[in-house]
Amino acid sequence: MITKQFTDADYPLLCDWWEAHGFPCVPFQSLSSTGYIVFQGNQGLYAGFLYLPRDGNIAWVEWLVSNPKASSEAKQEAFTGLINRIEQEARKEGITLL
Q: Over 90: is that where the pLDDT of 56 sits?
């Protein structure tokens, strides 16, 4: 599995996932620039966004979404990889509480 930085081109894919889960598409301008998608081959599995503070040591994770067509096992592994990557990025930015 590979974790990639979210790009503008990924937005339609995430909208499809949110809508398939019965959730409205999150407005693009509401998404953090610190977003990640986990892939297995060419198949996206899980995505999420890290929101960093302007000051302080607390950040949060938002807009987690999975590919509704992926297997539960693949999504579980992808979720773990996604959270690990987000935690790594948060620590790099000095965050101590996520």
A: no
Tokens of 13: 């894919």
CA distance 68 to 52: 28
Residue in this structure with the two tokens 């892939």, named with its chain if needed: 39
Spatial contact of 86 and 61, defined as CB atoms under 8 Å apart: yes
What global pTM score does this model have?
0.91
Best CA proximity match to 8, nearest among 28, 25, 27, 34 = 28
Tally of residues, the chain: 98
pLDDT score of 55: 83
Give the residue carrying structure tokens 């894919």: 13
